[in-house]
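Researcher: Structure prediction, please.
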Amino acid sequence: MYRKKERERCMKINIEFFNDDFINAIGAGVYEIIVSIGEKSRSLYIGESCWIIVRCATHLYRLKKKPEYFGFTSETIDRTDITVSFKLIKLIDDKGERKSNEKELIEKNVPLSQSGISDRQNSIEDKIHALNQFINSH
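Model: Predicted structure follows.
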């Protein structure tokens, strides 16, 4: 029996993947995912990893497969005026120092998809609501 292959999702948002820090992002440290529309930007997620580029490639794959993981909907993921940027914040080899730096930045920047309690994520509904509020306030 022939099974029709599910059509691959095509995101139309713009992606900036570490730009000038691509080689440095191979290492360990803290990173931020930022959403921008027009001149406005907001932190979407802050994380730490011993292999930043691998972790962020996983985030990018998840964004494509399940946009709601970061608060996007089938409509907002197709907006060409939205940019999602992956940025290296700081290279840090020590895991304890990375976790501490990550937590400080989450508390300071209040990313749209995170609860503010360590690196915990908000519910899907809360992420969608927060991102839509940011987008609609543009």
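Model: The chain has a mean pLDDT of 92.
Researcher: Thanks, that helps.
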